[in-house]
## 1
Amino acid sequence: MNATVIGSQLGDEGKGGVVDLFSEDADVVVRYQGGDNAGHTVVHDGEEYKLRLIPSGVIRGKTGVLGNGCVLNLETLFDEIETLRTRGLNPDVRVSSRAHVVFPYHRVLDRAEETSKTDEDQAVGTTGNGIGPAYEDKAGRRGIRVGELLDETVLRDRLEYTVPKKRRLAEDVFDVDTGIEFDVDHLFETFRAFGDQLQSEGMVVDAGSVLTEMARDGANVLFEGAQGTHIDVDHGNYPFVTSSNPTAGGAITGTGVDPSAVADGQIIGVVKAYLSRVGSGPMPTELSEESASRVREEVGGFGTVTGRPRRIGWLDVPMLRHAARVNGFTGIVLNHVDALGGFEELKVCEAYELDGERVTDVPSTTAAWARCTPEYRTVETWSDRDWSEIRDDGYDALPDAARTYVDYVSTELGVPVYAVGIGPGRDETIVRRHPFDSSED
Ligand code: IMP
């Protein structure tokens, strides 16, 4: 049996904790896109782990696979592995030989392009980790894959073809002084060493074949999306997006499994009970800075990777409708319900007013989305409380108004609620259905 966990908004929905929880009954947890732009916080046995690349389920001792759809900063990967080892874990991480490698020049180019866009007020607010430039090279057929690090002749040939072009781009277009990030010999030595390390640890695999074989042998596979639907390069608010497909289709193309492995499994959308965003782009329900800073104090609203303050908004139901359709959600997890406790007023956006018309879905151009004015419904509030008591007593112990809120979202999307998050810890999520439990179907 398989399940896919996907962010339904703009990333930061708390997918890491959900994956960690649901991976209890999984044998393997697979990331299918993105790189170290993601930030997953997992609390395990009272200890907090912040992961950017390694699939969250690895903390539970599950096999973690980074699929061909990922772009890998190998320094981050080995740092994370080392940190987990230092903390007494024995991470089992496999990497697709088809995954692309993020090189230091990608990070320089990412920041250079963002800086140039800032002058024209077009910056995306990327994480600066070279993700876009790495995917650009992949699509431009000048990227370098993990499997190519294992062959010295191929690696050198590829670097000699690509790096001079990247250096000229940096110097001539972006006016950047280039250094060792663009030095072929230095890159060759550094990445050959990474290749050796990957090989000596037996980490490089043909992920599609391995996963297919595991599934055939009865393994439960959990596909872990990073980022969220509305920053998907195709289905998000382009150009304020990441450069990969966090949506369900990405789990297929980003791993090499038979499409039915994803489509016939559970597809769980993770919904944050309010909205937050770390990058630029429209956000129709955004709160004023004064209100947002008050909310941030309550909910700790800073990006895991960049530490930037999150922009905050009310729950936007048209965004969720779009996500439910694009991904084919079979269920949702509503996270951070505790964070809304104690608000004097609570609103949800049910539809937009766009150029005099009422619309209930997200328009397909970002310019039109930016013109949308939210149509709000004010909902009943619930007070803050000791959420640990509710955790022990389960779903029915939630305040009535909170349950009404959860039920409202579930009804709007026409799918059941698998879990409700009322705190950051693994045991602070009330699970109603488990994606791997077929007895509940
Ligand atoms: P990039 O992925 O670093 O290129 O950034 C592109 C956009 O995606 C920016 O708005 C980032 O803030 C946003 N982004 C990237 N990764 C995440 C994430 O894991 N959570 C939330 N936003 C993200």
Note: The chain has a mean pLDDT of 94.
## 2
Amino acid sequence: MSQAIAYCDYNATTPLRPAAMAAMTRSLQDVGNPSSVHAPGRSAKGVMEAARETVARGVGARARDVIFTSSATEALHLALDAARDSYGDLIVSELEHDALWEATRDADEMAPLRATIDGVVDLTHLEELLAAAKRPLVAVMLANNETGVIQPVSRVAAMVREAGGILLVDASQAVGRIPVGIAALDASYLVVSSHKMGGPPGAGALVLASGAAFAISRRGGGQEQGRRPGTENVPALAGFAAAFDADGVSESVRIAALRDRFEQALRARHGDVVIFGETAPRLPNTSLFALPGAPAEIALIALDLEGVALSSGAACSSGKVKSSRVLAAMGVEPALARCALRASFGWATTDEDVDRLLAALDKVRARLGALEGAA
Ligand code: PLP
């Protein structure tokens, strides 16, 4: 990362890996629509199909079951459409990203699945919901974008199968950070995103378990075996595949050590810090924490002025800090949730970035304390 900014917001998006940049640059220098039959078209198709093989291998699927999309959001929506004739009721975890939550929350047949204080889906509640559901489609993410908490997806899958349902798993934050296999998860639909793992934005995929139902919902040029029309973004897919090949999972030990050192130091300096989800298994790179009395919207601006890029836990696509639906689902007090900050690290994070983040947090806290004292 450039010296100027300590970038600690990998769950929002990651810097492009050099291998992804190189693969994209090569692809951008070529012309060719992968649907064209001439040599340049065939060459673009070769790049795209190699990318498909890589993504498929990365999640243990068959290449023909990988459908490229423009984003994880699009892949999630495509999965809902693909499954539409195969389910009656819909059960969606309250921990899901807005990309899915906002698309399903108002559906008549949707039942929200509660979470525990640890940030894990409530399996007792799932059992109750499944008992009352007909042919349910259940959506549970693999790792939460705010807390990093890894969900017990294999147990969820066993319960869903038993109830005669099907499972949709958003693995956007997990792929490239922990091992992900569609068969081990027993998901019918798996969603991955390029820009969370060091690839470019503008690429994602819906991966199908073999035999998963696919109702065609969009008609057009017949790309992606007629399942997602529109000319594929070959340079982005080349970058996506290079990011998969970089094997982020092997970097996890280093990144977990950075995160753990960050949390230990935070605790040593601020005895009242609250770390959300720490009692559950978490992604190696994520820390969602609150310094009581330091509201996120003020802290984020102050951190930005210090050259440290962090997020509040909640999505802020409008540029405004929203209160976190995930922390509310975990039963966190609104006053504490307002102070939630998310540090998320990745392939280019250095010890120096972590030190700068810690120093900036010290400053912010001291300044807010001084303001409180003066008031
Ligand atoms: N799902 C999760 C868990 C996410 O964290 C995000 C992005 O933050 C998305 C889906 C949406 O991803 P995309 O930006 O690729 O649409």
Note: The chain has two domains: 6-14+247-374, 18-245.
